Target: C4-dicarboxylate ABC transporter
Amino acid sequence: MRVKQVVAALTAAMSLTLAAPAFAQETREFSVSTVLSDAFPWGQAAAKWAELVNERSEGRLTLTVYPNAQLVSGDQTKEFSAMRSGLIDMAVASTINWSPQVPELNLFSLPFLMPDEAAIDAITQGSAGDKVFAAIEKRGVMPLAWGENGFRELSNSRQAIQSPEDVQGLKIRVVGSPLFLDTFNTLGANPTQMSWADAQPALTTGAIDGQENPLSVFDVARVDQVGQKYLTLWHYMADPLIFGVNQKVWKSLSAEDQQLLRQAAIDAGAWEIEKSRNELADTLVAIKERGVAVTELSPEQHQAFVEATAAVYEKWTPRIGAELVAEAQAAIDAR
Ligand code: X2X
Model:
């Protein structure tokens, strides 16, 4: 009698366990690669994604963020390949760092294509953005949503830059695609490619004179404290962030979990874009208060940079895809 009761109780407990979805669905953990930590808007975007996914899956899905490109030993331009091969499950990545493998992403690096934030949105939220996502997917990574690193401004340790002539001869650190070498060579600078991990010591020792990064990066990384005393707001390009997932991981997920992951990425991206744009004005004040000489260009001075880099625009348009560039330009004109 007793034994029978125990068996019955156990059977009931087991069927309960099997019937409860929280037990039936497995818990999974995924790696998320970023270049910058959660001290920066970029890392905060990844943290927000992880938080939303954890909350909405009631703890079933865990995203563990690995900042500083540590999953590729700091070599940020290898991130896309590592994702494609499955070494990395997910990433919140800059278009710049993936552009060596996805040429279409050079669109955002075309000098002076996007004059303002509305122009970025016109691309990412429209048909040109859909084409860019299709290009990423075709190369083996599932893109889910956009975020923002920001407009990249030019700093250096030597002099205020107001004209293309002022850039001549400066040793400028650049990252990513050869497009950046073309841009800075065209301006008569001496560009050198290196990772963000290598850039910071190179700035400290004076091995390089300058760099370009969004205001948030300049501020949080205290780039002025390694001698970068001059900052020119030239807005020559902005790098969006892309939330992406390895294809195999993506296909292994149920349709519900795919939707959960995508919506969480969209929400985290929108949250981060708004937050980083809202912080820009205060960030600029903080940078000025630390004694950085900030140069704002007059429309004529700005135009001189546009004209000086026009050849880069022409050279890279066919590599990116003339149709895609035209579609982006039309979206910007109609914004
Ligand atoms: O390396 C950079 O400059 C950074 C952090 O902005 C990127 O990863 C593109």
Observations:
- Residues 35-36, 76, 94, 96-97, 149, 175, 196, 213, 217, 239 surround X2X (CB under 6 Å).
- The mean pLDDT is 94.
- Residues 152 and 185 are 17 Å apart (CA to CA).
- Strands lie at 28-33, 61-66, 90-94, 141-156, 171-174, 190-193, 210-214, 230-233, 238-246, 293-296.
